[in-house]
Each structure stands twice: as C-alpha cells, then as structure tokens.
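U., I forgot to send this yesterday:
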Amino acid sequence: MQKRNNYTQTEDFLGDDSFRQWVLQNKNTSDWESWILENPEKAKLAEEARLWILALKVEETQMLTSTVALALEKTWKKIERKETNPTRVQNPKPKTWNKKWFISAAAVLVIGLAFSWKYNNNFVSTENSRTNQELLIENSDGLVEQTNNSKNPQIITLSDGSSVLLQPKSKLSYPKFFIGNERKVYLSGEAFFEISKNRKKPFFVFANEIVTKVVGTSFRICAFENHPNVEVIVRTGKVKVHSKNQSTKTSSQEIVLLPNEAVRFVRETAKFDKITDITKDIVLKQAAKNIEQLSFDFTDIPVSQIFKTIEQAYQVEIDFPKEKLNNCHLTTSLIDQPLPEKLKIICKSLGNNTSYEINGNLIIITSEGCN
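Result:
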C-alpha cells in the first residue's frame, strides 16, 4: 500500500502485479477501490493505466493489423533513411536508441493504435440521437454494472465520492473512475443520487429518454423501462433536465428544477410536465422515500441517534462501539452531502482516531470515543 502512494506515472501502475490482477481478474478489488477513494488525485493515472491494460485485450481485425503494420513499416523506413543519409549538424549528438528500444516503442505503438481504434469504434457517439440502451452498449467498455436483485435498496459509492441509493429491480452502470471533463452514469430503474460538488466536472445521468445534469445536489430519478413516465424529483440544489433527442445549446430546451420541484416526462407524448410543489402531487408524495423526508440537521444530538437516522435513510446497518460513544453528542448539518462525506464529517467531529469503512450495506465505525 505504501509503495503505490508514491506512484506518479502511468508506468508505475502498469508495473504493479496487484493492479494488473485487479483490472484483468477482479482480484484485490476492495483494496484498490478503497485506495482510489482515499487518493482521488491518483485516479486519472490509475484509469489511464487500466485502459492501457485493457487495450492489450483488443481483438485483432484485418483493418487494425494492416493499419499497425503500415505504420510500423513507414516508421522503420524513415529510421533506415536517417541511418544511411544522416543530416549534418555542427554538434551531432550520439544515438541513444537501438533496435531493442525501437521494438519496445513499436509495441507501445501497437497498443496505442489498438486502443485508439477501439476507442473510436466503441466510445464516440452522437448521444442526442441514440436510445439509452444503444448509448450504454456503445460506452460499455470499462463500465461497472450493478443490478439490485434484492428486496432492499443498495448503496453505491462512486469514485468521486458521490453516493447512489439503488432501489430494487434497478440497474446502474458507471465507470470505475471518472476521467475527462464530465461524469456520466446510466440508470434503468429508480435511484436517489447525492452528487459530490465539482463545478469543473458536471454530472450526467442518462435514464431512458432523458438526461439529468447536475453539479452537486441530491435528487431521485424513477425511470423503469416498462413505466409510462420518467420522473426526476429534486431534494436539494439545482438540476437541469432535457430530452436525449434535444441539444442543450439553448436554455429554452432545458427544464430547470429547484428543491421540492419535479418533472414528469410522459413517454406517450414525449412531453415534459413540470411540478413546482411535489407535496401537491399525490403520486410523488406517496413514492417519497425515507432519505427524502428525514432531516440531517442535528443540534446536540447523541451520535447513536445520528447513526440511527442514517440507517433509516440509506437502509444500511451501522456497527459502532456503543459504550465508547455512549456520551457523545454532535451539532452538525449533513444536508446535501453524499453518504461518504456525511460519515467523514461525523468521524472528524468525534476525533480520537475515529474512522469508517463501507462494506456493501454495512458501515463499520472504529473509535476510541469522542474528544
């Protein structure tokens, strides 16, 4: 673990046996995912290394083989011409490359071309004219797909610290790490999102015919394949919703939602119905979950009660040292914070070597008591 903390280049990850086993064989998964969450500044390097490793698995096609061969042949001929007809310079530098070096470079070129071909054929898409399923298939390489086949909600923690409460009979597809200038996930079913704030990297949820764009907020989306409507309900922050077949270049094409507002996309007519007060809509009111109704403002509240509120909201179990935290009270606001951030704030407030670990729907708190 200490060794990887010093990684500063993609090659560092490529040379790590444990990392390669994680990417190719799903070994050491919890170890690496926990480390990435604790070291978000290393996430981009790790993702680049992961993509390089996956590129080695690209199936060769006639087009790819010929492209690589032609590129290598041209490069080799250029080098041979330079050897036979060297250009005259006043202070010539000694050659630092040899054939062994070139073979290594050629191998990198092969991998790069293979990945480039795979990227262009699998990732580049015209999102505004594709169905959600087509987009998901086209972007499926490297995505984690989690389906909730249980009777209870499941908590999912994303690499940026965002949390998703996935309801039964629902599926979420998301990347192991978010790279680039956007964060994108794909939902089929129902989920409650709490998005980590990052104005430079907006968050997009693709759910059937609609796209929801946020920066940092909490909201619920209900988008089952066999339901007549798709709904977006906002609890905190601001959300922008538009049809997948629309461009977002003009604001008139977006529905802007504020707290306690919602929008219902009627699939039969392909039209939006904005709801400015969700308490007056019987369907939305009845469908509201605990996490949307409970308060996360705490004033001199026993920490045991705070944990109970979190258990009720997220349908999780929290294991904590009851005797050591029996007399601990907190005053804090956890509104508009993803679950990992809520736990981090609580642990920091308690101090005294307090930490947490999320293992599925079980949260383990380790502490020596409060300060």
